[in-house]
Each structure stands twice: as C-alpha cells, then as structure tokens.
Amino acid sequence: MTESDLSPATLIARHMEQFRDKMDANNRVSRAIAAKTKRIAKWSAVLLALMAVAIVVEIATMRSELMAMIDSLVAIYGDFQSMSENVDAMTAQVQSIGAEVHGLPSVATDLKTINGDMGTMRAAVGSMTRDVTTMTTATSTLKVNTAEMANHFTTVERSVGYMDYNVYQMMRPMSLLPR
Description:
Elements: H1 8-101, H2 104-176
C-alpha cells in the first residue's frame, strides 16, 4: 500500500464506496420488502372486502329472518288473543249453564211427561214405517213404468229419425230438378 492509498481522501472515498454498496444492498432489500408488503396489503384488502360482503349478506339474511320471526310472534299474539276471547266466551257459557242447572228438579217432571209422549210417538212412527214401505213399493213400480216409457220414447224417436231419413231420400230426386 502506498501513501496515496492511506491518504484520508482515499480512505474516505473507499469508505464512501463501501457505504454506497451497503446502501444499494439495503435499498434492494427494502424494495423487495416493500413489494412483498404491497402484495400482502392488496390481498389483505381483497380478503377484507370479501369478508365485508359476506358479513353484509349475513346481516341481511339475519334481518329478514328476524322480521319473519317478528311476524310469526305477532300472529301468535293474535292467536292467543283470539283464544283468550274464546275462553272468556266459554266461561260465560259455563256460567249460563250453571244458572240453568238450578231448574233441573222441575225438568225431571217434564222428562217423565215427555217419556209418555215418546211412547205415543213411537207407535205413530211404526205406523209411518208401514206407510213408507207401501210408498217405497209404489215408487219402485213407478220407476219400472217410467223406464218402460223411456224405452218407448226412444223407439218413437228412432222411428221419427228413420222417417226423416226416408223423406230426405224421397226428396233427393226433387232437388236435382231445375227450379
């Protein structure tokens, strides 16, 4: 090494060049780190956006489900109110029945009278049963006679149809003549 190699200017220049090389190396590493950080930040932003969309969709779904649940609860409340009104009406009817039960001893006497009347009615129904049987027989006969009459009408209708055809056949030569 010569004296000019040991001069302060040369040493400073050499150190500055080493410093510049180290700074360039640090700069390259910093750019690589910045590029990777930028990629990570982009992917993180994309993932956050996707998560935000998913959360918004879930919130909307949850909202609609909650609204449906509230509608169901309102309907159930209406049903309970209707049931409450029905129970009140039933209670009033039971109270009314309770008031009517007090008159049952006089009803027992009336029931004995009704029982006697039922015996008379039973005899009348027996007589009506015989009359209904007679009417059923007459109706069956009428049904048979009506069926026979329907057959005769069918025969007459068929005969009229044949006559119409025959008249048409007889008139056919007449239609060929000039008018």
